[in-house]
Amino acid sequence: MNAGDDGVETRELAYFVAVAEELHFGRAARRLGIAQPPLSRAIQRLERRLGTRLLDRDSRTVALTEAGETLLREGRAALAAVSAAVRRTRRAGRSEPSLVLAAKPDADADLLPVILTAYAATPDALPVDIVFSAWERGAMVRDGRADAALMHAPREDLTGLAFEDLLTEAQVAVLPRRHPLAARAVLSLADLDREPLPRWPRAAPDGTYRMAESGHLMHLIALGRAVAVVPESVRANLRHDLVGVPVADAPPTTLVLAWPEGSRSRALAAFVRCAAEAARTARPAPETAHAAQATRTAGAAQEPAPQTGQATQTAQTTSAGLPAQVADDRWAGVSRRDGGRPTGGGASPSPTRR
Fold this sequence. Notes:
It is globular and about 65 Å long. The protein has helices at 10-22, 25-32, 36-50, 66-92, 112-120, 137-142, 214-222, 266-281, 286-298, and strands at residues 55-57, 62-64, 99-103, 128-132, 148-153, 161-169, 171-176, 228-231, 242-246, 253-260, 337-338, 341-342. It has nine helices and twelve strands. Strands 4-3-5-10-6-11-12 form a seven-stranded mixed β-sheet. It has a three-stranded antiparallel β-sheet with strand order 8-7-9. It has three domains: 10-90, Winged helix-like DNA-binding domain superfamily/Winged helix DNA-binding domain (Arc Repressor Mutant, subunit A); 94-169 and 252-342, Periplasmic binding protein-like II (D-Maltodextrin-Binding Protein, domain 2); 171-246, D-Maltodextrin-Binding Protein, domain 2, CATH 3.40.190. It is of the alpha+beta class. It starts with 9 loop residues before the first helix and ends in a 12-residue tail after the last strand. Residues 280-354 are annotated as: Disordered. Belongs to the LysR transcriptional regulatory family. It holds the Pfam family HTH_1.
């Protein structure tokens, strides 16, 4: 096949992705709301343009070629990027612009009101709309539904996102108050081996509960049907019939503020900078500080050596990590993470420009 000179249209990509996901032209046509013959012709036209076969097909089966698998992966990303660009452009063009922040209910370590109050006091602050979601926050930022999100590393997927650490904390096991382990001062992960732990969306089914909302999980724990290992700050908002017991050898978890990698939004950069500073200056509540000390004391014999960014470290911001257009060297020289992958403890002393 000879490759054509014309560029590939988003409609053609959408057609191909539908066929590649369904592996059936009839189902893909119904999904797209078009007849099957035009869909078949569109795929053939796309193959001619690209100069390669994307699908192996006969009268009964459809299978992806290696080139087809590549286009499926890249095509999904391209379509998502186009959709995100459209959403962000429409929001930017509104007469009254705002920022959209995605957050998980009761999982912000009580930093959300601190951040919002601090940002509202800054010059040229925009209104901040809060959208609550348990497990779609990263996707919301990637596809343009949100400008930024409060997320937890490393348990949540930060691919394609830049982010700043806000608070790193230990983890606790949430148990029913009547549970045999609830009276313990400290637990280990081995103590929970026989307990039913939740599996969140996309987890492999293994007979345990699959959860979509954290509120459902807490109710299930109260019924004695599950336990969960969560950030220590969650204890402050537990219902009266639940307790949180420190887990000495559970890895620390970090609350981060994530935004689209490569963003050049001045408003978003100002919000990130303000949020990082507000988190850095915030102090843990006495109960949380006391619990952290109890964890360190009770688990001293078996607690692993602190990792980078562990324990009570709070936010550190860098010019390289901020949206590129407004980065400045006041924030250089401290830890930066980009696209969900740590890049080391010392950032470049000069801003990163994309």
